[in-house]
Amino acid sequence: MEDFLNIADKSVSNRLFIGTGKFPDKRIAGDVIRASGCEVVTVALRRVDEGSKEENILDYIPDNCTVMINTSGARNADEAIRIARLGKAMGCGNWIKIEVISDNKYLLPDNAETLKATEVLAREGFSVFAYMNPDLVTARQLVKAGAAAIMPLGSPIGSNRGLKTEELVRIIINEIAIPVIVDAGLGRPSDAASCMEMGCDAVLVNTAIATARNPVKEAEAFNLAVKAGRIHYLLGSVKSAPHAKASSPLTGFLRDGK
Amino acid sequence: MKVRINGKEQDISGLENLCELIEERDLSGKAVVIEHNYNIIPKDKWRETILDESDNIEIVSFVGGG
To answer: Which domains does chain A have, with CATH numbers?
Structure first.
């Protein structure tokens, strides 16, 4: 079954995107990415210390992956714009995940600043992926501002609490024509499957994979769950009923004819 | 000469341009981007970018992130 996600200037076949933070050892990133089957990964930008022995995360990312730069660390639109431009200068394309956060306890995104940054960066030719609180009005404004995709959160970053925003995300899926990618908080493969079953175009997972006991196996589990959920969505849900409907034939019981 | 590098004030007496600064800090060959007084400077312009008192310099690179 051919099922490509056309997003920004690309077409991807795998609907699991992964973040590259928090790996116990950066060297496993390549194996995790391959096991996940993902074609889109996020990276962040940070200051480099003198004589840094820190290896470049890009060295571990397979060539077939699209790198999306996350503006994490930005507290307002101006900082996000600055990070985006620096990231682009690194020469990894122009896919940018705008993450603007001013709240340190819940790490919830600032929708107003995200919208401002989206307006500027989309105009500059960036493909903007807007991480946001799932709010339909903002989502519509982001579309108008030129976002390539909307990324509503499932629950707070790194919380592994799953899709707590289900009803609000469902509204966005129903009303927004550009791709909707649930990002943040998905803790288990079943969370990812649920997102895909309800019609999300993709999901982005980082913490649940990177901090798993075996990140490579967990990446594989998420890959399968995303595929399963997507297939189910394309087929459509079967009807539910308030009472039982037997699965086995209701004739030919051993007691019959007695 | 005192400049601010990655948020910290530092004395870089003897260094003339961005290229020398990168070499002195052992970052040659690393994938970094430099912002000089809030302008991104492409690598081929590092040598001609002369450092001055109170300049603000940011040196960044990619790290793992979500």
So the answer is: 5-235 (3.20.20.70)
From B38, B59, B64, residue closest to A23, measured CB to CB: B64
A76-123: per-residue pLDDT in tens?
Answer: 999 999 999 999 998 888 999 999 998 889 999 999 999 999 999 999
Tell me whether residue B65 is in a domain: no
Mean pLDDT of B3-31: 90
DSSP class of B55: -
Domain contains B31: yes
Q: How close is the nearest chain B Cα to the Cα of A248, in Å?
A: 47
Supply the CATH number for residue B41's domain: 3.10.20.30
Residue B29 is predicted with a pLDDT of: 80
Does residue B18 sit within a domain? yes
Q: Which residues touch A239 (CB under 8 Å, ≥6 apart)? A: none
Residue A76 burial (CB < 10 Å; 0-12/13-18/19+)? middle
